[in-house]
User: Which sequence fits this backbone?
């Protein structure tokens, strides 16, 4: 995620611009000698910069009004998704031409169909597992645009909607392929409407990590996998053939997702012992998110069963409980997960599992 945040008030949600591919990865690709690699990366960086500027303007002029809830003018039923997919036609004007609405059948475009299904899968996780009606808890319509720009190497949540690039075919494939990418970016919207975590240093890394957690839970729920069966990868299937890597990130083994001449080596640490102090990437938000990611993996696998049930419930309780400060660090988040586990499950296996998970990654809970 790459984000531009404005100070929020009690009645105003700070607009955000969140991408799945970190700027430092695109910076590395932009330096490649092969123009087939460097060209798309540079154009992606330019497009992302324009979007960040648009989000800053939004703080002055406000966000656009939501689309009409339904074709016939009636609001979507409570507890039902309202999805609209648009086609940018390889341009950058949003949202583009409407190509699929809620309840309409699949069409010929696989990208459109995947985007529609991914939005629905994320909606269903929130509703079925946690009783939440869309990202804002009040039935927020879910809009997405596909075929954004040309060879665009990213997907993003811009504070209003999802946007997907097709990838350049050299390093990245279509960004609708991994459903966890869709879930990850939509989860930035969930954070936007709940804790609204600041996007720098440890709170920014928590912002990123929360999105990885809910993104991977969307995938695991679709596949009906237990924590032990899951691969715990974010963006598996996104890297093009020939790229030395399996995904963008690994929650099971941070730092092992890729090691490629063009991409570089996955820089994520798994524990506080290797915490990265840097001024780049908003204080290492995409890098140090590996630590809370690994804590969640350890928590979920220690519990066993379906990770979106008990482990995911604890993370959801913290995110929506009203006590998580916008500038929370790892220790504060860990403390709140322990409190949430105790409040929901008592002094049982869940409490022991979450306490040990944070201990293993070197984060104190008191």
Assistant:
């Amino acid at each position: 995620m790459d984000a531009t945040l404005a100070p929020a008030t009690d009645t105003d949600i700070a607009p955000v611009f969140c991408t799945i591919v970190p700027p430092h990865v695109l910076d590395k690709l932009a330096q490649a000698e092969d123009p087939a690699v460097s060209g798309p990366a540079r154009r992606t960086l330019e497009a992302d910069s324009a979007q960040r500027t648009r989000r800053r303007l939004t703080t002055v002029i406000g966000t656009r009004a939501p689309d009409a809830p339904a074709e016939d003018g009636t609001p979507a039923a409570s507890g039902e998704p309202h999805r609209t997919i648009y086609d940018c036609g390889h341009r950058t004007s949003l949202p583009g031409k409407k190509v699929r609405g809620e309840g309409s059948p699949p069409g010929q475009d696989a990208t459109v169909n995947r985007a529609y299904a991914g939005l629905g899968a994320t909606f269903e996780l929130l509703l079925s597992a946690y009783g939440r009606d869309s990202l804002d808890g009040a039935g927020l319509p879910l809009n997405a645009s596909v075929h954004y720009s040309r060879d665009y190497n990213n997907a993003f949540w811009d504070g209003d909607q999802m946007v997907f690039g097709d990838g350049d075919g050299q390093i990245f494939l279509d960004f609708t392929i991994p459903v966890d990418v869709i879930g990850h970016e939509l989860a930035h919207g969930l954070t936007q409407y709940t804790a609204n975590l600041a996007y720098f240093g440890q709170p920014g890394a928590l912002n990123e990590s929360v999105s990885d957690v809910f993104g991977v839970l969307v995938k695991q729920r679709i596949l009906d996998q237990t924590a032990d069966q899951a691969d715990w990868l974010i963006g598996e299937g996104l890297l093009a053939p020939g790229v030395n890597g399996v995904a963008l990130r690994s929650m099971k083994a941070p730092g092992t997702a890729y090691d490629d001449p063009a991409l570089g080596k996955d820089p994520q640490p798994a524990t506080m012992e290797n915490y990265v102090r840097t001024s780049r990437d908003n204080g290492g938000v995409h890098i140090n998110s590996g630590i809370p990611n690994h804590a969640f993996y350890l928590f979920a696998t220690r519990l066993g069963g379906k990770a979106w049930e008990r482990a995911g419930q604890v993370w959801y309780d913290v995110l929506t409980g009203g006590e998580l400060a916008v500038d929370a660090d790892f220790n504060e988040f860990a403390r709140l997960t322990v409190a949430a586990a105790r409040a929901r499950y008592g002094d049982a296996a869940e409490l022991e599992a979450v306490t040990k998970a944070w201990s293993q990654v070197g984060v104190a809970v008191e």
Summary: Confidence is low (pLDDT under 50) at residues 1-12, 58-75. The two ends are 29 Å apart (CA to CA). The beta strands are 18-19, 83-87, 97-101, 142-146, 155-157, 162-164, 233-234, 249-250, 259-260, 264-265.
